[in-house]
Each structure stands twice: as structure tokens, then as C-alpha cells.
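User: Here's a chain of 66 residues. Predict its fold as C-alpha cells.
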Amino acid sequence: MTLEEMPPVMKELFKMLPPSGSEWPIAERVRWLHAFEAVCRLVFKDDAAIAILGSHPLTATPEASK
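Assistant: Prediction complete.
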């Protein structure tokens, strides 16, 4: 898939990435990866989910918050 062929929603997600070398907190990275994973499932019509581990509230376990 070329950049021109990429769906607009994917292009917009990539625009949200911080500049190379800048600070990007883990919670924000996990949030972005969850969004990208969901968009990939929509674009490629795939129901398989990918486990993304990190300190984002969506992935945090009760043990991790202690």
C-alpha cells in the first residue's frame, strides 16, 4: 500500500505521532497503538485483536496499579 492508497483515517493517525526524538509517555503510546489496532481491523476487515500491553488504563491490571 502506498501513501496515496492509504485510507484517510490511517493517514490522520500517523499525523498524530510526535516528532522523532520527542518525549512520548507510555500511556499516550499505548492509546495510539490501541487506536491504530482498531483502525487496522476496520480497514483490513479482520476481527482478530492484538494484545497491547502497557500502563494505559485500558490495559492495566489490578496488580499493576499496586
